Structures are given as C-alpha cells and as structure tokens.
Amino acid sequence: MNSAGGAFGNGRAPAFIAVAHGSRDPRSAATMSAVVTEIAEQRPDVDVRLAFLDLNTPSVEQVIDAVAAQGHTEAIVVPLLLGSAFHARVDLPGMLAAARRRHPLLRITQADVLGTDARLVAALRDRALDAGADRDDAGLGIAVAAVGSSSAAANRITAEVAAALTHDTRWRSAICFATTQPSLVRAVSDLRSQGARRVMVAPWFLAPGLLIDRLADAEPGLVHAPPIGPHRFLTQVALDRYHAAGRLPLELSA
To answer: Which of 111, 114, 166, 209 is 20 to 30 A away from residue 90, measured at CA?
Structure first.
C-alpha cells in the first residue's frame, strides 16, 4: 500500500504484511483493502501491504517475494484474523517457513492474531450503535454471530465477546454461529424468551461475505449491524500487533 521507507536500524522499518483470510465475495477483499489503507495512512513511514491466505490475490507468497525483491531485510506478518485457529496456527506458519527458505536474507516474523482485544469489542459496539441500538434500551437483545468452530473452547470465546459487548448497557445477549449450533434462529428464540422485544444481529466478523449473508437470510426481518470493517480501533490493534512482534517503539521516526 505504501512503499516509503522510514528510519529504522539500516534505514528502513520492517515491512508490514497484513494477511486477510480471503473470500469468494468481492466485498470482503474490498473491505480488507480499505482496512489496510487506513493502517498505511497511519504509518506513512512503513511499507504496508495486503495479502490473502486463500481465494484472493495477492497471495502471501507473492507479497513476501515482492518485499524481498524490493530490498527489505525484515518483514512482520500480521494476521488480520479474530481467532487463532488453523489458518493462524498451521497454514500461515507453513507459508512463512517456505518463504524463509526462498529468502534467507529476509527476516520474517509472524505477529499475534487480532483476537478479542477490548478495542475490537468496542468497535463492534459502535457498529451496533450505528445500526440503531440504544445503550439504555432494556428491550433490546443482541445476537452476536461468529463463524463457529468444532472447538468448544473457541466457541466460548464468542460468549466472552457477547458479555463484553453488553457491558455498561442494558442489552441482553446471546451467541450464534454461521456454521454450527446454536443457530441464529435459536439465539433469537432465546433472547425473546428472556424478554427481548427487539433483536439485532451483531456479526463478529471483519468483513462482509457469504456467511454473513447466510445469517441475514436466516432471519431477514431483523436489523443486522455491519461487520467491523475499517475502524480506528482495528487500525490501532493491528499496529500494536506489528510493534509487539518486532519489539518496535509505538512511533517509528519518519
């Protein structure tokens, strides 16, 4: 996104390679491109680039090859992923190991995933408020929707997000998943049995896509907040992951 070099050690800050999941839905790639554009705007001294794990281009391999060809000696790979699942624990490390063999002079570090940082929960709350939620509405139920996993522990994390989302509001919450149980239909039923008069769906997703569309089709009469998308808090968290992985100061000199 930005090829400017900053003053850092050998005169250049580590390249920032932001890795998104990828989707057949073009809205997803467009959203992640907007996210990375915002990151690059915050750090004009850093070469910030977007890569995809699957289904979109440029691939992780292509971006690393380009970074090496342009003379970078260090790159920090930041997974723009909310969970530390197979892609973050197996796929991406395998790609980076192969890249290190191709480019032995390029130091490649994988940063932590975005995770359930409180700022991302705050960004999700902002999306719900933008969609018409009122913090003081005791009749509002929020169905927090995530992808879903075969791991019960991973799914419990969504419940933690839902609890954090409704903190300091009068909202009720329930969780649901696009690929496993409980479904959105079940979450809506649970919220209404708890006394919710209105239900809003808050997708714990970074970008729109086919899974979010599936949720909308399941309950088309509900208000569906947009996914997190480009948001100042997402930019902050991604930059924090970059700095932490490289043990860099929060502000590199321009």
So the answer is: 209
Terminal CA-CA length for the chain = 17
pLDDT digits (tens, 9 = 90+) for 79-88: 999 988 787 8
Beta bridge partners of 76: 16, 109
Report yes or no: 230 and 38 within 8 Å, Cβ to Cβ.
yes
User: Phi and psi of 50, rounded to 5°?
Assistant: -105, 135
Q: Look at the chain and count its residues.
A: 254
Please give the backbone phi and psi of residue 134, each rounded to the nearest 5 degrees, phi first. Answer: -120, 125
Q: Measured between alpha carbons, how far is 115 from 81 in angstroms, rounded to an integer?
A: 7
User: Does pLDDT of 32 surpass 90?
Assistant: yes
Residue 88 has what pLDDT? Answer: 85
pTM, entire model: 0.92
Q: Where are the alpha helices (DSSP H) in the chain?
A: 26-42, 60-69, 86, 92-102, 118-130, 152-166, 184-193, 210-218, 232-246
